[in-house]
């Protein structure tokens, strides 16, 4: 008998556990071992597929990933550099709102803002802008050779855009 991936096993009418910590409870009286298991291997039953931060550990930056209500990953962020887990997915840090994930998200906070396009106030990235619609921020990129102009609220060639992204100083 050997362990196999759950996708390759058909249990039929027999009980099929989805929680790895259940295996500790089956073999012997589960005392502190189960509690420690749950801290390091959170239960995914009832959770959507995706990446989440492990709230059971005080150490920030520890994540787990759920697939088919099973915990398939535990450890450091599985996301590539310049991305972070947000709503279960690895998302560009410029798409994650600062008000929801301080220290991680770099998107414009759209709470209380009118609908429209906004430059990121915290970082001088001229190639991107954020569109706020009903409090939700969406990241957009300017076409090659264009920069975001905060006066017109659209991407322009730099000779037609206000400083600091463009060369226009008067009338901005």
Describe the structure.
The protein has helices at residues 22-27, 32-40, and strands spanning 50-53, 63-67, 70-75, 83-86, 89-92, 116-118, 128-133, 136-141, 146-149, 154-157. The chain is mostly beta strands and 172 residues long. The strands form four sheets. The chain has a three-stranded antiparallel beta sheet with strand order 1-2-3, with no helix packed on it. It has a three-stranded antiparallel beta sheet with strand order 6-7-8, with no helix packed on it. The protein has a two-stranded antiparallel sheet with strand order 4-5. A hairpin with a 4-residue loop joins β9 and β10. It is elongated. The chain starts with 21 loop residues before the first helix and ends in a 15-residue tail after the last strand.
The low-confidence parts are: none
Count of extended strands: 10
Ends apart, CA distance between termini: 74 Å
| Global geometry | elongated
Approximate helicity band: under 10%
Instruction: Report the C-alpha radius of gyration, rounded.
Output: 23 Å
Main structural class: mainly beta
Number of helices: 2
Which sequence of strands runs across the widest sheet?
Answer: 1-2-3
What is the residue-averaged pLDDT?
85
Percent of sequence in beta strands: 25-35%
Main sheet properties: 3 strands, antiparallel
Q: What string gives the helices and strands in order? A: HHEEEEEEEEEE
């Amino acid at each position: 008998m050997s362990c196999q991936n759950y996708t390759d096993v058909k249990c039929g009418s027999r009980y099929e556990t989805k929680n790895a910590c259940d295996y500790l409870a089956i073999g012997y009286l589960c005392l502190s071992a189960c509690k420690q298991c749950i801290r390091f291997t959170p239960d995914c039953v009832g959770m959507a597929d995706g990446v989440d931060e492990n709230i059971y550990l005080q150490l920030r930056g520890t994540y787990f990933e759920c697939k088919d209500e099973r915990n398939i990953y535990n450890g450091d962020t599985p996301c590539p550099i310049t991305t972070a887990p947000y709503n279960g997915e690895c998302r560009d840090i410029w798409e994650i709102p600062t008000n929801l994930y301080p220290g991680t998200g770099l998107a414009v906070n759209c709470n209380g803002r009118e609908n429209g396009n906004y430059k990121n106030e915290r970082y001088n990235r001229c190639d991107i802008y954020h569109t706020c619609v009903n409090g939700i921020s969406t990241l957009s990129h300017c076409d090659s050779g264009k920069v975001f102009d905060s006066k017109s609220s659209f991407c322009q060639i730099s000779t037609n855009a206000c400083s600091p992204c463009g060369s226009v100083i008067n009338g901005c």
